[in-house]
Specification:
The protein has 8 helices and no strands. Helix content is 88%, strand content 0%. It has a domain at 7-222. Keywords: Membrane, Transmembrane, Transmembrane helix.
Length: 338
Protein backbone atom coordinates (compact mmCIF):
# COMPACT_ATOMS: atom_id res chain seq x y z
CA UNK A 1 0.00 0.00 0.00
CA UNK A 2 1.50 3.33 -1.10
CA UNK A 3 0.90 6.30 1.20
CA UNK A 4 1.02 9.84 -0.18
CA UNK A 5 2.00 12.50 2.35
CA UNK A 6 1.25 16.19 1.73
CA UNK A 7 4.47 18.19 1.33
CA UNK A 8 3.18 21.02 3.51
CA UNK A 9 2.51 18.70 6.43
CA UNK A 10 5.92 17.05 6.07
CA UNK A 11 7.65 20.44 5.90
CA UNK A 12 5.80 21.80 8.93
CA UNK A 13 6.42 18.69 11.03
CA UNK A 14 10.10 18.52 10.03
CA UNK A 15 10.47 22.19 10.98
CA UNK A 16 8.98 21.50 14.41
CA UNK A 17 11.23 18.50 14.95
CA UNK A 18 14.29 20.44 13.77
CA UNK A 19 13.55 23.26 16.19
CA UNK A 20 12.95 20.82 19.05
CA UNK A 21 16.21 18.97 18.40
CA UNK A 22 18.13 22.23 18.00
CA UNK A 23 16.70 23.48 21.28
CA UNK A 24 17.63 20.23 23.01
CA UNK A 25 21.20 20.50 21.69
CA UNK A 26 21.41 24.15 22.78
CA UNK A 27 20.20 23.31 26.28
CA UNK A 28 22.81 20.57 26.65
CA UNK A 29 25.55 22.93 25.47
CA UNK A 30 24.28 25.67 27.81
CA UNK A 31 24.64 23.30 30.74
CA UNK A 32 28.15 22.43 29.58
CA UNK A 33 29.18 26.09 29.52
CA UNK A 34 27.46 26.70 32.85
CA UNK A 35 29.84 24.25 34.48
CA UNK A 36 32.76 25.47 32.36
CA UNK A 37 32.27 29.12 33.37
CA UNK A 38 32.39 28.26 37.05
CA UNK A 39 35.47 26.06 36.61
CA UNK A 40 37.23 28.74 34.52
CA UNK A 41 36.52 31.36 37.15
CA UNK A 42 37.92 29.16 39.92
CA UNK A 43 40.86 28.22 37.68
CA UNK A 44 41.59 31.89 36.99
CA UNK A 45 41.63 32.65 40.72
CA UNK A 46 43.97 29.69 41.33
CA UNK A 47 46.25 30.84 38.50
CA UNK A 48 46.33 34.37 39.92
CA UNK A 49 47.16 33.13 43.41
CA UNK A 50 49.75 30.48 42.57
CA UNK A 51 51.17 31.38 39.15
CA UNK A 52 50.66 35.02 38.22
CA UNK A 53 52.70 36.59 41.03
CA UNK A 54 55.71 34.49 40.04
CA UNK A 55 55.15 35.06 36.36
CA UNK A 56 55.03 38.79 36.85
CA UNK A 57 57.15 39.49 39.96
CA UNK A 58 59.76 36.77 40.24
CA UNK A 59 59.57 34.62 43.37
CA UNK A 60 57.62 37.10 45.44
CA UNK A 61 54.34 35.53 46.61
CA UNK A 62 51.73 38.03 47.75
CA UNK A 63 48.18 39.08 47.05
CA UNK A 64 48.55 40.70 43.69
CA UNK A 65 46.33 42.87 41.55
CA UNK A 66 45.85 39.84 39.32
CA UNK A 67 44.02 38.04 42.12
CA UNK A 68 41.45 40.79 42.37
CA UNK A 69 41.25 40.95 38.58
CA UNK A 70 40.64 37.21 38.43
CA UNK A 71 37.91 37.43 41.06
CA UNK A 72 36.21 40.58 39.74
CA UNK A 73 36.66 40.28 35.99
CA UNK A 74 36.11 36.52 36.05
CA UNK A 75 32.85 37.03 37.92
CA UNK A 76 31.85 39.75 35.46
CA UNK A 77 32.77 37.81 32.32
CA UNK A 78 31.19 34.55 33.50
CA UNK A 79 28.37 35.90 35.66
CA UNK A 80 26.16 37.36 32.94
CA UNK A 81 26.30 34.21 30.75
CA UNK A 82 25.49 32.08 33.79
CA UNK A 83 22.49 34.27 34.64
CA UNK A 84 21.19 34.07 31.07
CA UNK A 85 21.76 30.31 30.97
CA UNK A 86 19.60 29.97 34.09
CA UNK A 87 16.87 32.44 33.09
CA UNK A 88 16.77 32.16 29.27
CA UNK A 89 18.27 28.80 28.32
CA UNK A 90 18.37 27.76 24.68
CA UNK A 91 17.93 31.23 23.19
CA UNK A 92 20.14 32.56 20.39
CA UNK A 93 20.93 35.71 22.38
CA UNK A 94 22.12 33.55 25.28
CA UNK A 95 24.47 31.68 22.94
CA UNK A 96 26.05 34.91 21.70
CA UNK A 97 26.47 36.25 25.24
CA UNK A 98 28.13 32.95 26.17
CA UNK A 99 30.46 33.34 23.16
CA UNK A 100 31.41 36.87 24.23
CA UNK A 101 31.93 35.80 27.84
CA UNK A 102 34.02 32.80 26.78
CA UNK A 103 36.22 34.99 24.56
CA UNK A 104 36.75 37.48 27.40
CA UNK A 105 37.46 34.60 29.80
CA UNK A 106 40.12 33.32 27.37
CA UNK A 107 41.68 36.78 27.28
CA UNK A 108 41.64 36.96 31.10
CA UNK A 109 43.33 33.58 31.46
CA UNK A 110 45.97 34.56 28.88
CA UNK A 111 46.60 37.74 30.86
CA UNK A 112 46.83 35.88 34.18
CA UNK A 113 49.33 33.42 32.66
CA UNK A 114 51.53 36.28 31.45
CA UNK A 115 50.64 35.94 27.77
CA UNK A 116 52.07 32.42 27.49
CA UNK A 117 51.63 30.92 24.04
CA UNK A 118 50.30 27.70 25.56
CA UNK A 119 47.36 29.55 27.09
CA UNK A 120 46.27 30.68 23.62
CA UNK A 121 45.16 27.11 22.98
CA UNK A 122 42.26 27.89 25.30
CA UNK A 123 40.83 29.90 22.39
CA UNK A 124 40.88 26.92 20.04
CA UNK A 125 39.35 24.65 22.66
CA UNK A 126 36.61 27.21 23.25
CA UNK A 127 35.87 27.32 19.52
CA UNK A 128 35.48 23.53 19.46
CA UNK A 129 33.06 23.68 22.41
CA UNK A 130 31.05 26.51 20.84
CA UNK A 131 30.71 24.43 17.68
CA UNK A 132 28.50 22.12 19.73
CA UNK A 133 25.74 24.72 19.24
CA UNK A 134 25.81 23.94 15.48
CA UNK A 135 25.43 27.69 14.92
CA UNK A 136 28.24 29.19 12.84
CA UNK A 137 27.20 32.72 13.80
CA UNK A 138 28.26 32.03 17.40
CA UNK A 139 31.74 31.20 16.11
CA UNK A 140 31.89 34.54 14.32
CA UNK A 141 30.87 36.37 17.50
CA UNK A 142 33.57 34.61 19.51
CA UNK A 143 36.20 35.15 16.80
CA UNK A 144 35.31 38.85 16.48
CA UNK A 145 35.79 39.43 20.22
CA UNK A 146 39.09 37.49 20.16
CA UNK A 147 40.31 39.51 17.17
CA UNK A 148 39.38 42.81 18.85
CA UNK A 149 41.07 41.70 22.09
CA UNK A 150 44.29 40.76 20.28
CA UNK A 151 44.24 43.98 18.26
CA UNK A 152 43.68 46.33 21.18
CA UNK A 153 45.90 44.65 23.74
CA UNK A 154 48.55 43.95 21.10
CA UNK A 155 48.61 47.67 20.37
CA UNK A 156 48.39 49.07 23.91
CA UNK A 157 49.49 46.22 26.26
CA UNK A 158 51.34 43.52 24.27
CA UNK A 159 52.84 41.98 27.41
CA UNK A 160 49.32 41.08 28.56
CA UNK A 161 48.46 39.20 25.37
CA UNK A 162 51.78 38.08 23.87
CA UNK A 163 54.02 37.92 26.95
CA UNK A 164 56.47 40.50 25.59
CA UNK A 165 56.79 44.25 25.80
CA UNK A 166 57.89 44.54 22.18
CA UNK A 167 55.19 46.03 20.01
CA UNK A 168 54.60 44.09 16.80
CA UNK A 169 51.96 45.65 14.59
CA UNK A 170 50.84 42.57 12.67
CA UNK A 171 51.37 39.83 15.26
CA UNK A 172 47.72 39.95 16.32
CA UNK A 173 46.77 39.24 12.71
CA UNK A 174 48.77 36.00 12.74
CA UNK A 175 46.88 34.77 15.80
CA UNK A 176 43.56 35.80 14.30
CA UNK A 177 44.45 34.02 11.05
CA UNK A 178 44.82 30.73 12.93
CA UNK A 179 41.47 31.36 14.58
CA UNK A 180 39.90 32.00 11.16
CA UNK A 181 41.56 28.83 9.86
CA UNK A 182 39.82 26.80 12.54
CA UNK A 183 36.61 28.75 11.99
CA UNK A 184 36.47 27.65 8.36
CA UNK A 185 36.43 23.97 9.26
CA UNK A 186 34.09 24.45 12.20
CA UNK A 187 31.67 26.52 10.11
CA UNK A 188 31.59 23.81 7.45
CA UNK A 189 31.05 21.26 10.21
CA UNK A 190 28.20 23.31 11.71
CA UNK A 191 26.51 23.78 8.34
CA UNK A 192 26.82 20.07 7.59
CA UNK A 193 25.57 19.17 11.06
CA UNK A 194 22.52 21.40 10.67
CA UNK A 195 21.89 19.94 7.22
CA UNK A 196 22.11 16.43 8.64
CA UNK A 197 19.88 17.41 11.54
CA UNK A 198 17.33 18.89 9.16
CA UNK A 199 17.42 15.75 6.98
CA UNK A 200 17.00 13.57 10.07
CA UNK A 201 14.07 15.73 11.17
CA UNK A 202 12.49 15.38 7.73
CA UNK A 203 12.91 11.60 7.81
CA UNK A 204 11.44 11.46 11.29
CA UNK A 205 8.54 13.67 10.18
CA UNK A 206 7.86 11.36 7.24
CA UNK A 207 7.99 8.36 9.54
CA UNK A 208 5.62 9.96 12.04
CA UNK A 209 3.14 11.06 9.38
CA UNK A 210 3.40 7.67 7.66
CA UNK A 211 2.76 5.96 10.97
CA UNK A 212 -0.25 8.19 11.59
CA UNK A 213 -1.56 7.47 8.08
CA UNK A 214 -1.03 3.75 8.56
CA UNK A 215 -2.80 3.93 11.91
CA UNK A 216 -5.70 5.78 10.30
CA UNK A 217 -5.97 3.43 7.32
CA UNK A 218 -4.90 0.11 8.75
CA UNK A 219 -4.54 0.10 12.50
CA UNK A 220 -7.88 1.69 13.32
CA UNK A 221 -9.83 -0.76 11.09
CA UNK A 222 -7.80 -3.51 12.68
CA UNK A 223 -8.72 -2.13 16.08
CA UNK A 224 -12.36 -2.28 15.03
CA UNK A 225 -11.86 -5.83 13.82
CA UNK A 226 -10.13 -6.68 17.06
CA UNK A 227 -13.04 -5.18 18.98
CA UNK A 228 -15.48 -7.27 16.94
CA UNK A 229 -13.27 -10.29 17.44
CA UNK A 230 -13.18 -9.54 21.16
CA UNK A 231 -16.98 -9.40 21.19
CA UNK A 232 -17.08 -12.70 19.32
CA UNK A 233 -14.64 -14.17 21.79
CA UNK A 234 -16.79 -12.92 24.65
CA UNK A 235 -19.84 -14.47 22.98
CA UNK A 236 -17.98 -17.72 22.44
CA UNK A 237 -16.79 -17.55 26.01
CA UNK A 238 -20.39 -17.14 27.17
CA UNK A 239 -21.46 -20.04 24.94
CA UNK A 240 -18.58 -22.11 26.23
CA UNK A 241 -19.60 -21.27 29.76
CA UNK A 242 -23.18 -22.30 29.00
CA UNK A 243 -21.94 -25.50 27.39
CA UNK A 244 -19.74 -26.10 30.39
CA UNK A 245 -22.73 -25.66 32.66
CA UNK A 246 -24.76 -28.01 30.42
CA UNK A 247 -21.95 -30.54 30.54
CA UNK A 248 -21.82 -30.14 34.29
CA UNK A 249 -25.55 -30.76 34.52
CA UNK A 250 -25.23 -33.74 32.19
CA UNK A 251 -22.36 -35.02 34.28
CA UNK A 252 -24.45 -34.68 37.41
CA UNK A 253 -27.37 -36.42 35.65
CA UNK A 254 -25.02 -39.14 34.44
CA UNK A 255 -23.69 -39.52 37.95
CA UNK A 256 -27.22 -39.75 39.28
CA UNK A 257 -27.98 -42.29 36.52
CA UNK A 258 -24.93 -44.24 37.52
CA UNK A 259 -26.08 -44.15 41.13
CA UNK A 260 -29.56 -45.27 40.04
CA UNK A 261 -28.06 -47.98 37.85
CA UNK A 262 -25.98 -49.12 40.79
CA UNK A 263 -29.08 -49.20 42.94
CA UNK A 264 -30.90 -51.13 40.19
CA UNK A 265 -27.95 -53.48 39.95
CA UNK A 266 -28.02 -54.01 43.69
CA UNK A 267 -31.78 -54.51 43.50
CA UNK A 268 -31.32 -56.89 40.56
CA UNK A 269 -28.71 -58.80 42.51
CA UNK A 270 -31.08 -59.00 45.46
CA UNK A 271 -33.93 -60.06 43.14
CA UNK A 272 -31.63 -62.58 41.49
CA UNK A 273 -30.71 -64.00 44.85
CA UNK A 274 -34.41 -64.05 45.80
CA UNK A 275 -35.23 -65.73 42.50
CA UNK A 276 -32.49 -68.25 43.14
CA UNK A 277 -33.94 -68.96 46.53
CA UNK A 278 -37.42 -69.23 44.99
CA UNK A 279 -36.01 -71.48 42.30
CA UNK A 280 -34.41 -73.65 44.90
CA UNK A 281 -37.70 -73.66 46.82
CA UNK A 282 -39.53 -74.46 43.59
CA UNK A 283 -37.10 -77.21 42.83
CA UNK A 284 -37.60 -78.53 46.34
CA UNK A 285 -41.39 -78.18 45.90
CA UNK A 286 -41.04 -79.96 42.56
CA UNK A 287 -39.23 -82.78 44.26
CA UNK A 288 -41.98 -82.94 46.89
CA UNK A 289 -44.67 -82.82 44.15
CA UNK A 290 -42.95 -85.62 42.31
CA UNK A 291 -42.92 -87.65 45.49
CA UNK A 292 -46.58 -86.84 46.10
CA UNK A 293 -47.32 -87.68 42.49
CA UNK A 294 -45.58 -91.00 42.94
CA UNK A 295 -47.52 -91.56 46.14
CA UNK A 296 -50.77 -90.64 44.40
CA UNK A 297 -49.87 -92.89 41.50
CA UNK A 298 -49.16 -95.68 43.91
CA UNK A 299 -52.41 -94.85 45.75
CA UNK A 300 -54.31 -94.93 42.45
CA UNK A 301 -52.73 -98.23 41.64
CA UNK A 302 -53.67 -99.46 45.12
CA UNK A 303 -57.22 -98.21 44.66
CA UNK A 304 -57.35 -99.93 41.30
CA UNK A 305 -56.27 -103.14 42.97
CA UNK A 306 -58.82 -102.60 45.71
CA UNK A 307 -61.46 -101.91 43.08
CA UNK A 308 -60.56 -105.06 41.29
CA UNK A 309 -60.71 -106.95 44.55
CA UNK A 310 -64.06 -105.29 45.37
CA UNK A 311 -65.39 -106.16 41.96
CA UNK A 312 -64.15 -109.72 42.42
CA UNK A 313 -65.68 -109.80 45.86
CA UNK A 314 -68.91 -108.39 44.44
CA UNK A 315 -68.95 -111.04 41.81
CA UNK A 316 -68.36 -113.66 44.49
CA UNK A 317 -71.12 -112.16 46.60
CA UNK A 318 -73.40 -112.20 43.60
CA UNK A 319 -72.44 -115.85 43.03
CA UNK A 320 -73.09 -116.58 46.67
CA UNK A 321 -76.46 -114.82 46.34
CA UNK A 322 -77.30 -116.99 43.39
CA UNK A 323 -76.26 -120.10 45.33
CA UNK A 324 -78.28 -118.83 48.29
CA UNK A 325 -81.36 -118.42 46.13
CA UNK A 326 -80.78 -121.86 44.74
CA UNK A 327 -80.45 -123.21 48.27
CA UNK A 328 -83.57 -121.33 49.28
CA UNK A 329 -85.41 -122.76 46.34
CA UNK A 330 -84.23 -126.18 47.24
CA UNK A 331 -85.25 -125.57 50.82
CA UNK A 332 -88.70 -124.46 49.80
CA UNK A 333 -88.97 -127.43 47.57
CA UNK A 334 -87.97 -129.70 50.40
CA UNK A 335 -90.48 -128.06 52.64
CA UNK A 336 -93.11 -128.40 50.06
CA UNK A 337 -92.28 -132.00 49.76
CA UNK A 338 -92.41 -132.47 53.42
Amino acid sequence: MRIHLPDTEVAERSRQLFQAQSLSSSLRTDRTFLVLMVLQWLGGIAAAVFLSPRAWAGLQSAVHFHVWAAVGLGLLFGGLPVVLMLTHPGRASTRHVIAVGQALMSGLLIHLMGGRVETHFHIFGSLALLAMYRDWRVLLTFSGVVAADHLLRGAFWPESIFGTQAHETWRWLEHVAWVVFEDLFLIVSCVQARRDLRAAAEREAQLELSREAVEARVVQPLVGSVAALRDSVLTLTGSTKDQHEDLARQARALQETQVTAEQIRQTSLAASEQAARVLRSTEEAGDVGAAVEDAIARSVEGLADIRAQVEDLSERIQGLAAYTEKIAGITRTVQDLA
